[in-house]
Here is the input.
Amino acid sequence: MAQIFHRSTNFISRLSIYGAVVIIGALGYALYAIAMSPWYTDQNVKRQQPVPFSHRHHAGELGIDCRYCHTSVEKSSFAGVPPTQTCMTCHSQIWTNASMLEPVRASYRDDKSIEWIRVNALPDFVYFDHSIHVAKGVGCTTCHGQIAEMPLTERAGTLYMSWCLECHRQPEKYVRPKSEVFNPYYEPPSAGEQLKMGKKLVAEYNIKSLQTCSTCHR
Amino acid sequence: MNEDSIAKNSIDLAAARAKLAGAGAPRLWQSLEELSGTKEFVEFRDHEFPPSAGKGNDDINRRDVLKLMAASAAMAGLSACTKLPTEKIVPYVRPPEEILPGRPLFYATSLFQAGVATGVLVESHTGRPTKIEGNPEHPGSLGSSDIFSQASILNFYDPDRSQSVVFDGRVSTWSDFAAEMGNARTRLAPAKGAGMRVLTKTITSPTLGAQIKSLLGQFPEAKWHQYEVCGGDSVREGARLAFGRPVNTVYHLDQADVIVSLDADFLSCGAGHVRYAREFGSRRDLSAGPASKLNRLYVAESMPTSTGAVSDHRLPVRSADIDDLARQLAAAAGVAVPPSANASAKIPAAWVGAVGRDLAAHRGSSLVIAGEHQPPFVHALAHAMNAALGNVGKTVVYTESIEANPVNQLESLRELVNDLNAGQVDFLVILGANPVYDAPADFNFATALQNAKVRVHSGLYNDETAERCHWHAPAAHSLESWSDGRAYDGTAGIVQPLIAPLYDGHSAHEIIALFTGDAAKSGHDLVRGYWQSQRPEKDKAFEALWETSLHDGLIAGTALPAISVAPHADFVALGHTQAVGSDTSPLEVVFRPDPSIGDGEFSNNSWLQELPKPITRLTWDNAAMISPGTAQQLGLTTGDYVTLSLAPAGRNINGGIYIVPGHADNSVTLHLGFGRSRGGSVGTGPGFNSYLLRASSAPWIARGVQIAKTGKKYEFATTQAQYNIDLNGHPVEEESSAAVGQGGEHGRDLVRIATMEEFRKDPSFAKNPEDEKTKDLTIYPGYKYEGYAWGMSIDLNRCVGCNACVIACQSENNIAVVGKDQVARGRAMHWIRIDTYFRGNLDNPEMYYEPLPCMQCENAPCEYVCPVGATTHNAEGLNDMTYNRCVGTRYCSNNCPYKVRRFNFYLYSDYKTPSLYGMRNPNVTVRSRGVMEKCTYCVQRINAAKIRSEEENRLIRDGEIITACQSACPSEAIVFGNINDPNSKVAKLKAQTRDYGLLEDLNTRPRTTYLARVRNPNPEIRD
Amino acid sequence: MASEGSHNTAGVADPDPIIGPGHTFETVTDKISSIVLTRPVTPGWVFGLLIAFGALMLLNLTITLLMIKGVGIWGIRVPTAWGFAIVNFVWWIGIGHAGTLISAILLLLHQKWRTSINRFAEAMTLFAVMCAGMFPLLHMGRPWMFFYLMPYPNPMWMWPQFRSPLVWDVFAVTTYLTVSLLFWFVGLIPDLATLRDRAKNKTAKIIYGMLSMGWRGSAIHWSRYETASLLLAGLATPLVVSVHTVVSFDFTIGIIPGWHTTIFPPYFVAGAIYSGFAMVLTLAIPIRKFYHLEDLVTARHLDIMAKVMLATGLIVAYGYLIEAFLAFYSGDQYEIYMMKNRFHGPYAPLYWMLISCNIIIPQLLWSRKVRRNVGLLFVLSLVVNMGMWLERFVIIVISLSRDFIPSSWGMYYPTRWDWATYIGTFGLFFTLFFLFIRFLPMISIVEVRSLVHETNEEKGHS
Here is the structure.
């Protein structure tokens, strides 16, 4: 009787069997890639701000201490975003009519807040506290990256839970002397050195590797 | 405290800051603390949780189905891959000095109940009050609080609050209002204010009192009336009867060895009840073991109350027969008084005799307290007894009245009504009162009111009275206005605003000022001005005093001095005829403010509506409460919908019958505050309006009530199963016997009880050898808790079942309200519940409270069954609950032997009402639909304290962390701390012989343990 | 049965053969394949399908509502946080077991009679597992987070909590589904080929052609077919025992009195097979009637299945007995109360119904007359199905409703949406089943032919 299928279908059927395996694998990888991609995590993505504020200029070139603007970083969970007043302390003197700074002056004039785009945002159910991290020798740049070289601020880490855990599991890998916490140009010593120093500091600062859920989630 | 000291000298700043609250500021904080507010988040969330995921009805409508199209996409798991929305940071333009974003501030202020001020500390996050705690400096609080002050925060943010001035039903403005009042002033001036009437509630505010007096000075013809349902008329009149003038009575319960309560629920309502609960608790303390000296409490009452439940001897007596009982006791105490006109055989002579002897045996250390709702004569008798027993100056102290103008409020209102009906009232100003709803029915206030030519109302709500007034001006809540007020002992507290009025409300001070020509002055000026004029200190000195007073929340040394008053010799002759009218029908009806929502002031407060009432565990309703005996006699049962009619007046109301074990026979208790017709979205609806039955002739106890079945049934929603009350054969409820029964198949031994004698014989009666056995039954080595190990101890002997912990927890942990329907389905969300058990016969059972938070088991059955590890154990022994990991299999709840886990069967948290965002605790996640939640020992407070201590390189001090329930508890029954530190308070308590764990034979090793209850009965009485 | 076999060889005409007399390879093939290929669509079938489909739509509606509003639409509460959803889950998955038992274990044991029922028994398994599989998903508070139960590398560095039986369920059920599907399909291949060759119209040819994966019936095909079937049978056999054991762990791992008992695994498995065979009967009896397959699914089959039911039923009965005995023997007050609560608590009627459905009434099966009475057998199978459903209800709901602390006791009342979910799954099950009997050979042609061969052999002897 007449064949329904051409011989070539044999090949197709075989192909489909092996193909299935490959495709499923590829799909899995694609998902993983997306989850890790800057598009999804916003890592290293520059955000347009109402005022093109440059950390490179202020923290880097001018060397203004982080705490000059982020005043509550040592006292509160929230590092603090400078009120317009802080900007105006200088900019009422210098660049007084730079068009770039008009929104700042407007804000001060009309008593209307500047609406910055948040760069490092954690989900609601995550409770992060700046003060304790700073107090235990976790440097600004450890999480916020080479801030002193960012013309426009960007997110340095994925802010995934794994990203937090990397340090919470092995603080000695990242901790630095308290004196260096606010140094934007701090260079960690070589891996081996870091471990040696880290272990010492962890003991000295009484750093605990907190990994219980309620540390961050309540 | 340090924060406060910064806070106090910049209150205006704080207020100014709060003005910002309307504008940009809150959005910053929402994005920081609670995304809920930002538009993006709402969309995101709605994407994940369709808005229609509402409460209650499980019906489906077309729109629901359509919404699925949007929803299902998210349901398909996409939601997990949804990108977080872009957030904005909106910083201040000019930063406030004292506010540190992310760190709360605490302000001391006062809140009022029936005019009496109680000191509180209010937690404020960047200008938003979020939580109310007691003020340790304040004599009326000593750091504790009660359900009403706790729940005030919800009233403050209540979206149903009146939000704008209304004139003739049209929205108007404050300036128009002020102008109109100004005109009225000029209009009334010539006639010296003839025809002007001011109606207020009880006023203890010296400033307001002075203002009104100056008003009356300027308008001699004007009159000031006061009316408050629980205004304590009989207390006042009782004093007047005994001493010839109204005085204020202050009890020292800590000095009393024997206390007799005549229908008085002094532990959970009335002036100073928070302080009294503290003092009472201190005398139920057994830390000295068998040597400790317990007080002994006798309570005679009709409706079982918290006070009755913790008594050593409770006698169910009709409220009307208390008069009789009082006379017999008085006679025993040596006060010459003729027997009652309607002497009833109900009162067991043996009981009276024994109590009498006990009182006599404790001269100077005994105390008789008469209930606020008893007739004046009973109060007079109580005064006489205390005098005869030499208690005055020891357990009871008299001071001048704390009120600005103590009057018989019922008469005061009657006078107003008469004037109204006589058409003599041209201009009526009602401040805060709601007489249309709560005036005695025979006054027909609503109709009388129409006779006033101009009617002005100011209140928090646009309520029944406001509706019938020409002008209505929103009042400012205590948290957003300046004022002052006296505590139960006369101490003057300052009320300071934490935030600018949310809805352009204005305080009574400002409204009176419109008439006294101080219109220009702000509330702050008025209050400060008054005290400046009162105090000797001037300028700098006063400035300093003012600052300290704001900081402490009270003006030191303003407690009223004790005065010596002696009862008239002839008060008996004057008073004993005043006894309640003759006994026509055996059935009496007793009116009481509702234990949860009071006289109606809190009827729009969903926390309190859903709060299970003491003993009955009833929520969202009032009922006609009767005794099992009466129920049998009348052939009624819980849920019967009946008509209560009160001859001769012929008024009647419909309501459901509710059988309460231990209620006095032939007595019906009706709670007030329900059946509002204009009570807001929550307050309108629940229950029935008992005021319709309440006449000025018998405001609290009425005779001759008739009950007629309608044949209909009424559904109640209770949090503790009620199927157990079974009148056919079962003398005791099944569940209670199961709980307290010792041994046997029912002997779960959840509440462990002994009398003082038994305790002396066997101090460790609460220990059960079975519990110990299980301890080593494990093949795994036990976990060693280095550092902290958190634990809690709950003293059943101190707990007075006041529910403060429940509301405090709800406020601290953003616990959602679910509504009557859901409560009835067994889905109430309270993290701590107060189980109530009965022992003995139905007619007069012993009652036991058992507060039940999460036990934080060391071998937690909930943990190992969670498939996703959403509930895990932490290194300090806490049983963590991670909401964002929970997928809602509910396995943990099934496997929890204590059933303390709560599940969001629907989207219970209110994401839709913006005004509520501000109220939420920013440090606790708001749980959405489909996740499990439970008590965490206030882990947010633990973490905060840990961070502080770590930063300061020290250990957490004992008592540094105080859980919400603990801080609220007035009797100090709840203690939390580090059990690894043998010197901590909690460790010491757990070391007591009375310490026992719930269901320990399951080897769950609960971290929350109980101190067994020890009663101190009078050996002479066998009941 | 061996003895009966010897009977046959002894020449006495077999009283009731496992295949009707006079069947040749042709007749068998015709009879079975015709149902799919030539037989016109009967109104009966259409009617049945419509009803089933209606119920399926009800399921969709319920799930829709469930997703919009949440599990609150069910009667579940604290303390009874599991209700119909889990009851149905356990019940459906139990039903599946008969199919696997028949097709796997009986194959290994060379039970000839299995051949004519194993095909639709397997189908039943497959569909039942599908119905069961939905519930663990649906009953979750946040079903869209289901993947948290799967072990996969993720940026949270979180794994499922492997101590939880619910995680084991995930593996058990998915494995079960996969193996059953494979087994069923492999078994179908030769028949699909037959259909392909006999099909008249082109599309049918092509579809069956694709499904039969180029089967030509060559010797090598046959040998591989045999090996594959044996291997899969070997794989499936442990599942018969393991799957329901794991399901029973959901309860035994818990500490709730009425759950926390060691007897569950065996007694759940027995129960599963019990209900499974009941369901096979419930399906077989009407089908053989409507499609006149009395001579392929003979009275003998029904008789044997009835016997299996009787046997497993007795094991289950033993389970109940021990459960009650241990409760009192343990002296544990909670256990004792749990049992008393079953005997005369608020749910007592259900418990006694369960006892009569699962223990008392099935004793009728001792009588050969009953086993031969098709109508009665059908009713009995329904009774047992109901009984087994009640068993799960009793175990889950009654135990939860009154556990340790009396203050939190509470009754569970199913809402209309509980029922809708339950009825809905029947919709899914029968919709699939109706389509199956219409488009696939519901009896294995190949295997029955092999039977014909053997029976003819026996004839030859005499």
About this structure: Chain B has four domains: 13-22+723-776+786-1015, 165-231+405-552, 249-397, 584-718.
